[in-house]
Each structure stands twice: as C-alpha cells, then as structure tokens.
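#dry-run=false #mode=assembly
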Amino acid sequence: MSGRGKIYSFTVVQRSADPIAFPEPYVVAIIKLDEGVAMLSTIVGTSANKIEVDMDVVVSFEKISDEITLYPFKVVA
Amino acid sequence: MPDARDAAIVGVYTTAQTRGSGRTGFSYAMEALRGALDDAGLTVSDIEGLFVQLDEWPQSPSPNGYGNKANWCYQLGIPLRWQTGAVNAADTGAPAINDAAAAIKTGQVDTVAIILGRGMTQPLDGRTAPWTRHSHEFTGWTGSYTAVQFALVASRHMALYGTTPEQLAAAAATVRNYGNVNPQALMYGRGPYDKERVVQSRMISSPLTVLMCAQVNDGGGAMIITSLEKARDLKKPPIHILGGADQLSYPAYAEAPLLERHVGGDFPTDWVDKGFARAGVTRNDVDFVELYDGFAIWMLTQWEMLGFCKVGEAGPFVETGVMELDGRYPTCTDGGCMAFSHNGTPSLFRPIEAARQLRGEVMDNCPGWEQGEHTFEKDLCRAVKDAKVGMAVSMGPPTGGGNFVLLAKD
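#status=ok
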C-alpha cells in the first residue's frame, strides 16, 4: 500500500455526537486509495473550506498510545 | 385474480408520536396492538403470528434488545405459531409484511400482528439520537455517526452528478409540508417550509442541515395482516398486499458508504423489477410512494434505486415537484421520518400510511376529512386523489440496501 489516494467524498461535521472526543468542526472523508480500496478517515492540516472531492491525499500516522495509532490523511500540496 | 390465501392489511394504528412522555416502548407497542386489533375487529386470540420490534423488554432483556418470543406468548396469553425477529430496524416494515404474506399464503397462519414501539428516546446530552451513535472499529474513530455517513453519500452524489443542496432541500420541504397538515405528526403546524428555509437551517454535517434529517421521538405502531378469505368478514375493506422485494449488499456504518455499492455501480438492481413483476403492477400503476426519508439524500438515491428516474438524475427529478400532492408521486404523505415520526424503529409507519391513504382515512386540515372529503389544496390537504396503488419503503442505511412493498385498494 502506497498510503496515497484521492478524496472520494467528504463532509464538514458541525454537530458532533461527542464534542469532547471530536470538537466541531471536523472533516470526515472517504479515501479511495491508489490501489482501489476505499476507507473512512479524516482530513487534517487543511481548512475545511479548501477541501474538494478528487484532491490527492497521503496518509499521516498519529500515535495515540502504545497500542493505538490512527491514520488521518493530509492533502498533497 | 386474488386468491383466498393472498394476504391483506386489515388493521392499523399509530400511538401519539411525542417526546418526553416517559413511557416505554413496550407501553407504546401494547397500545398500538390493541388499537390495530380494534381497527380490524379482531381480538388477541385471533393472532397466530407475531413480528415485534422494541428497544426493551421489561422482564427479560435479550441480547439483541427485541425480546424473547416466549415472553410474548406469556404476555398475550396465546400460543404463537409463526414468529420471526427483527434483525435491524428496517425489518419491521416492508420485509415483515412480505414475510407475513408468505406465511399466510403457505397456510402456516391466518393472522399476523406486527408491532413496534420505542420510548425514552431523547439523548441525555441533547446531541444526537441514541441509535445514530454506532461504534465500529474502522469508522467510529473518525467521529462518524449516522448523519455523517449520509452526508458522505450526498457529497459524492453532488460531486458526480451536480446535485445541489437546494434539490435535497426541495425533497425535505415537500415531506415536511405534509407533516405540517397532519394532526398526528410530531411536527404538525410547524411549517410551511420552502427550500430556502431548509437550506438555511442549522448545519449538521455538510451538506445536510437539520431540516434535511429525521426526528427523534417516542411512539409506536401496529398492523394486522390476515388472509383475504378472513379479511372479507372484517370491519373495513382489505388493503391487498401485492408483493415486494428487498436486497442487502453492503454493511452499513461499519464500512465507508460507497455510492456505487448502491446506485450507479455494478451491483445487481434486478431485485426491484422482479418485485414489481411478482406484484403484477408497474411503476405507472403506482399513485403515491412512502419513501423512507431518514435523510434527504436517501430519498434521492431511493428514486434512483427503485428505477423511477435514472441514476444521477434524482436531483432534477425531485425539483420538478414530483413528490408534491399534485405531483406524479406524492411522497411521504404523513410527513415521514422528517415530520411524522422517527422513533428509531419507524419502518412500519411507511406502510401504515400507505394503507391509510388507500382506505381514504387521512386526517388533515380539510374541514370534511372525517367523512373522507378532501380539498386537495396543499396548505390544508395531504390526501392522494383516487389512490389505488401505493408503494412503501422501510429501510434506511446510507448505501447498500433497500426494500419495498406494493399495496392496493380493494
């Protein structure tokens, strides 16, 4: 897996089910990886109003604890 | 020609749809069962089969939350000869009716009751409905919940086909306006709505605003189904169950909701045509449609899934007013999940409303509604003129599934 792909669709969430864990606003996106697999993730590092469908993205690993590492995506400049 | 073993709807009932009553789902379901039996002119001892969906059972919670069937025999004081269980919230609607019709046709039973109820639905933190907070390994960590998943489908539909927020809003406003003139609807008298009001309401998860999303409320409903042979002796004219179909093709919420796993992809769509063929009617025969309107985008994708318009064209399709009372297919004529009720398990409300339209029992603001006299003016009325065939859908995942049942007047 290259960790690269495109934004298939995204949403800016203004109403969080859990505002402590997920402060508003936040972006949830479906990423279609170059290898063809689709996955749900988030987009970090770009303001929500600059995000568009079909943008190129790359995975960025975020270590939460020794056991847990999350995999948000960043827009490729 | 109808056969004596064909199935018909002979009793329907909905409780008050409300918030904060403190009543349990069990209480709503029992009221609804009594009401539907009375509507049919039957008693508990006539029931042979039961299809039930509750959020709790007071004596003996089962792992899936829908109650142990043996408890129901004990509660009702009758043996049950056919019982099946709701696996997810969709099952209590069209699939339960189709199953019941099959059990009646094959002679397993004569009379089946379908009941549902849910109470104490208001989330303590006021954020979002308890049933929308799914937690799955590969999606939960993103902050996804039900509205987010539907928003992702809407985002893709907009990017691929040019669908607009105004088109989503047009569908939601139409449905909410039916609820505005339905005294039994949770949101009765809260309109009128236009697409500007819907678009400008509070954003939940773009592009879905709060008025493009369903309600959160308590309530129950019930339906009694029996053989046509037995239906002929009952209080009201039978509503014929012509047939239907369902298909499941993707694990909702646990995976990313891919539009092409639903419409516009290579998943087989022949299940809809086969269902119409079994029912012996075509889309041209359908006078009105009770879609499952959990979110505005799901109405658009249902029109495409069911073949009423081409894939990608649902936005312009709904914008022409097709869902209005004077449109080709009046839709969600009780106000739907958006304005009538979404109690977490509202699937049966869609076919109940279809049966009421076909009976001509439509409560609205028309002065003569109790005599079945309607003005057919949109600001007062929600009765479909000369309704003979109705379609009801009872399913609500963002992608990857659907179902329907076709009903007809005697």
